[in-house]
Amino acid sequence: MATNSEPGLPPGVLTALLPRRNRPIPTALASFPGGIADVSTPDGDSLYNKFDLLCPRPECGSIILRAGVAKLLERPSIQMEPADRTPAALLPLPQPPASTEWWLVTPSPMEFENIGFSKPVAPLSSGDKQLKLLLCAQCDLGPLGWSEVDGTEFWLACSRVGYRADS
Ligand SMILES: [Zn+2]
């Protein structure tokens, strides 16, 4: 048997080959004692995301958006999926027209580090424009947010993204 006669690999090579060794760890919004105030930072008259935004799935943590890119806004909630179809890894949003907190990204998808889009879907709540739902580009978890088809505004639900608070 040659099993034990292989030359040893230099230290560090195996760990360097392990995938996602340095992947960011997403922290949920609900884990911050101060809530949205803990994950936002002022710039001029507006608040922006203080941390990188990540896929909220702990095993993924794909970087969606860098810190300081998205503006915090409170706007009416959007029903992005049927009420009984929210993925287990995501929190339900308030029922429209109740408001919720959003990260607004403009003017193009180029602002994102990684983002995926669904096919156009008819809105399930008020409004007549078709929407594209925002998904994790790595693992397809979503909807994390939405945009209008050919729109210049991209809305991420603050409660549906993870925060890179360890960086
Ligand atoms: Zn993901």
Automatic annotation (TrEMBL):
Keywords: Guanine-nucleotide releasing factor, Protein transport, Transport. GO terms for molecular function: guanyl-nucleotide exchange factor activity; zinc ion binding. One of its GO terms (cellular component) is cytosol. Coiled coil: none annotated. It comes from the Eukaryota. SUPFAM superfamilies: Mss4-like (SSF51316). Signal peptide: none annotated. One of its GO terms (biological process) is small GTPase-mediated signal transduction. This is Mss4-like protein. It comes from Mycena rosella (Pink bonnet). The lineage of its organism: Eukaryota, Fungi, Dikarya, Basidiomycota, Agaricomycotina.
